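Quick one, tokens below:
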């Protein structure tokens, strides 16, 4: 029985062997680059038709399409990761998390930004002081309700 980690490993193998980018893999799946990458890494479920399209394009076993379409179990380590790229994102949330919360609630009211109804893009932007990485996140505002 194939698991999400098995599919992730297969996708990485095909990606390396064919010299593919995540953008090209996303194009094969017919979904966004961020969402496709996340689904291939086991953190989202891919719509079955898109999963089957990707499986065919990468030459993966049919079972991989079933696994890509299954809902994930999202378990996060409670410790701060040591990978420098991921650590810096934790650092950003640590430094700016309460600021973001304040501004979201000031502009939207008492609520949160959804990571379920969500979109994100990652771009490299030239800058005279050194290239920048631009993260754009857009999540539906979910107000808390009183009853």
């Amino acid at each position: 029985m194939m698991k999400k980690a098995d599919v992730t490993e297969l996708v990485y193998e095909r990606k390396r062997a064919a010299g593919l980018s995540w953008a090209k893999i996303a194009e094969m799946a017919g979904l966004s680059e961020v969402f496709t990458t996340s689904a291939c890494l086991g953190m989202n479920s891919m719509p079955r038709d898109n999963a089957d399209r990707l499986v065919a394009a990468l030459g993966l076993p049919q079972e991989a399409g079933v696994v890509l379409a299954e809902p994930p179990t999202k378990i996060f380590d409670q410790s701060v990761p040591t990978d420098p790229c991921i650590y810096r994102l934790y650092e950003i949330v640590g430094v700016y998390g309460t600021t973001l919360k304040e501004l979201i609630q000031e502009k939207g009211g008492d609520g949160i930004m959804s990571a379920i109804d969500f979109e994100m893009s990652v771009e490299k932007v030239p800058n005279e002081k050194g290239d920048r990485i631009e993260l754009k996140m857009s999540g539906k505002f979910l107000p808390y309700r009183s009853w």
